[in-house]
């Protein structure tokens, strides 16, 4: 099983190895997204008084969201560093490193003293640990997508790439359950130690993730590229030099994928618990329901993509999201518990189908030799420039203009995503397969390109 692949067999994965790689990607990204999501929830509910106690509640919340954004600033750097390693030394070793970094930084946040204990050092250390989280996630996502997709049987790359995407709702479900468990504590207990428990639980998830990920084999396409001497010396520079258009369009195509969760999660928690007077447990329960809906919709989207074409499914899902988004905000804005549940569940019916396909869609836009770096840069630059700013800008728009402007902002990002998806699909459909790629890789890439690039 671990033998060096011979000529003509480099990119032909076995089904057992493919399933193991898919499951490893799912578990790893679950751990990573759990850690990233608990920070967003804690920023909305706890970090203001703990780390910025001298500020007013509104300023403290904005400061918490700015700290939340600092993790996004580090994500492109993580994409460059770990993309370089992933394209040079392999996907597997790189993914083990990112998993350890995320787990340790999240556990350290759970142990971090507040401003009352160590003064200014507390928010400074919080920002530094958040940036380590960003570095780890910046390298994790692209590698997890590739190790699953590059193990996939022919014609199933969209489905196996979605294994990594499924880590987002699973991680979100675990994060929401963790905060639901501690949200019932008295306010003083929650502020002093209750919010720390979800972060400390990261150590347990880290151990589970490591045990599973160590058993995953290296990507057959990476091994094939290595055997044929197709390893890039400087993947980031080569990506910028040879694939600037796919990189820029990829940033736009990921916009609502990286931002949507923070509209419906981080911002929604802050808005409903402050302006609308909704209890923490109510909004967290409603978000849990929405995430469960996402969990079931995403695999359906991936299956439909393999059947009807990835871009067709993405476009349909994005158009439906544009139509439904104003209704989602109107329902939640009533402050009625039942309508909040309906609104958030409705919001989870459409965009997850797009998100499920996004990973495989971006992967096909870049050649194998720079694929880890290419998709990591596209996704993580989008996260930094667009996703990380969502809670801050949404809160600012709410304070200055009202919730209608927030809904308009959400719709605008979705339309940007839609336009870039269509343009990138057309470009990818006409991109010739590189002459230097091994034959099996070229066939797989061409097949995926044919399936996923239909826009008609």
Automatic annotation (TrEMBL):
It is found in: Cell membrane. Keywords: Cell membrane, Membrane, Symport, Transmembrane, Transmembrane helix, Transport. It is a multi-pass membrane protein. One of its GO terms (cellular component) is plasma membrane. Residues 21-429 form the Major facilitator superfamily (MFS) profile domain. The chain crosses the membrane at residues 21-47, 59-83, 95-118, 124-149, 170-187, 193-216, 247-271, 283-305, 312-332, 338-363, 375-397, 403-425. Its main location: membrane. GO terms for molecular function: symporter activity. Pfam families: MFS_1, Sugar_tr. CDD domains: MFS_ShiA_like. It comes from the Bacteria. PROSITE patterns: MFS, SUGAR_TRANSPORT_2. May be a proton symporter involved in the uptake of osmolytes such as proline and glycine betaine. Belongs to the major facilitator superfamily. Metabolite:H+ Symporter (MHS) family (TC 2.A.1.6) family. This is Putative proline/betaine transporter.
């Amino acid at each position: 099983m671990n033998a060096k692949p011979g000529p003509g067999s480099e990119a032909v994965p076995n089904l057992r190895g493919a399933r193991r790689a898919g499951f490893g990607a799912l578990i790893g990204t679950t751990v990573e997204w759990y850690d990233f999501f608990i920070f967003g929830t804690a920023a909305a509910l706890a970090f203001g008084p703990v780390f910025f106690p001298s500020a007013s509640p509104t300023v403290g919340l904005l400061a918490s969201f700015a700290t939340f954004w600092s993790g996004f600033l580090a994500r492109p750097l993580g994409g460059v560093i770990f993309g370089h390693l992933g394209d040079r030394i392999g996907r597997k070793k790189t993914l083990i490193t990112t998993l350890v970094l995320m787990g340790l930084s999240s556990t350290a946040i759970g142990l971090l003293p507040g401003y009352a204990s160590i003064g200014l050092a507390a928010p400074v250390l919080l920002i530094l640990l958040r940036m380590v989280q960003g570095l780890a996630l910046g390298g994790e996502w692209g590698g997890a997508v590739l190790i699953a997709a590059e193990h996939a049987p022919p014609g199933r790359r969209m489905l196996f790439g979605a294994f990594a995407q499924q880590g987002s709702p699973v991680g979100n479900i675990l994060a929401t359950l963790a905060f639901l468990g501690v949200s019932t504590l008295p306010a003083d207990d929650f502020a002093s130690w209750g919010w720390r428990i979800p972060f400390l639980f990261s150590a347990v998830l880290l151990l589970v993730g490591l045990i599973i990920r160590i058993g995953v084999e290296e990507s057959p396409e990476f091994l094939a590229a290595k055997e044929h001497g197709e390893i890039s010396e400087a993947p980031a520079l080569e990506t910028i030099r040879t694939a600037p258009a796919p990189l820029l369009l990829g940033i736009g195509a990921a916009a609502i994928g990286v931002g949507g969760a923070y509209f419906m999660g981080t911002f929604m928690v802050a808005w409903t618990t402050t302006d609308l007077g909704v209890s923490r447990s109510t909004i967290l329960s409603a978000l849990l329901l929405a995430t469960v809906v996402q969990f079931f919709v995403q695999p359906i989207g991936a299956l439909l993509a393999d059947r009807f074409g990835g871009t067709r499914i993405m476009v349909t899902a994005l158009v439906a999201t544009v139509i439904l988004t104003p209704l989602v905000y109107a329902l939640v804005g009533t402050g009625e518990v039942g309508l909040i549940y309906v609104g958030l569940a409705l919001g989870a019916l459409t965009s997850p189908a797009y998100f499920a396909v996004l990973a495989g869609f971006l992967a096909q836009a870049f050649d194998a030799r720079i694929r880890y770096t290419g998709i990591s840069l596209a996704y993580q630059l989008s996260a930094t420039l667009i996703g990380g700013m969502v809670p801050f800008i949404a809160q600012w728009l709410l304070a200055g203009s009202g919730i209608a402007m927030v809904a308009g902002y959400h719709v605008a990002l979705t339309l940007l995503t839609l336009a870039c998806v269509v343009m990138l699909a057309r470009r990818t459909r006409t991109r010739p397969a590189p002459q230097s790629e091994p034959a099996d890789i070229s066939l797989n890439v061409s097949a995926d390109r044919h399936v996923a690039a239909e826009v008609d």
